[in-house]
Specification:
This protein has about 180 residues and is α/β, with parallel strands linked by helices. It is about 50% helix and about 15% strand. The protein has a 4-stranded parallel beta sheet with strand order 2-1-3-4, sandwiched between helices.
Length: about 180
């Protein structure tokens, strides 16, 4: 639909720009007398479909590698209660969406004796993940934990990282990371 039209328009614009730069270079190098109008028009008209086809082939190949788990180009850390986090990792198929796990933090291990979260310890772990290349942090929890998850998400946003919340569920057809 609209995305396909945008790809075609972007490809045509990129090819037009590249072609214009090549013509400018030929003009500056005084090579324009060797170029005919027919050959330039043919090169331009053949180049656009070749560029679009090459781009589509590269996208298909990369997508197949990602779905097979052989290409993981994004890193994500996961934070949540132990049971919720384990279920998310088992059912979420991060590797099939191109994610590599940067680390996990179980909230049970990040609580102070009074039951509150140790924000400094969580921030320290998040900073280590980010230094290691993580660009996403997924907060996993149930709807009963929504206030705590919101506070934690707001604390983590200061690190210029994408923070996403995933519901704690056994539903394997719900692919939250498709939206992130």
């Amino acid at each position: 639909g609209r995305q396909q039209q945008a790809v075609i328009a972007d490809s045509a614009l990129a090819w037009t720009g590249a072609f214009a730069v090549a013509l400018l270079a030929a003009f500056l190098a005084d090579l324009t007398d060797q170029l005919s109008r027919v050959s330039m028009l043919a090169a331009y008209l053949v180049g656009v479909p070749l560029l679009i086809g090459g781009r589509a082939a590269a996208h298909t190949i990369a997508s197949s590698y990602i779905r097979a788990g052989r290409l993981q180009y994004r890193k994500a850390g996961v934070i949540g209660n132990r049971g919720d986090t384990v279920r998310f990792l088992l059912n979420g198929s991060l590797w099939r969406a191109g994610y590599r796990l940067a680390g996990t933090l179980y909230l049970e291990e990040a609580r102070r004796p009074d039951g509150r979260l140790d924000e400094a310890a969580i921030a320290d772990i998040a900073q280590r993940w980010i230094a290691g290349g993580a660009a996403y942090i997924v907060l996993v929890g149930s709807f009963g934990d929504i206030d705590e998850i919101e506070r934690l998400g707001n604390d983590l946003k200061r690190f210029s990282v994408s923070v996403a919340c995933a519901p704690a569920t056994d539903n394997t057809s719900f692919k939250f990371l498709d939206v992130v």
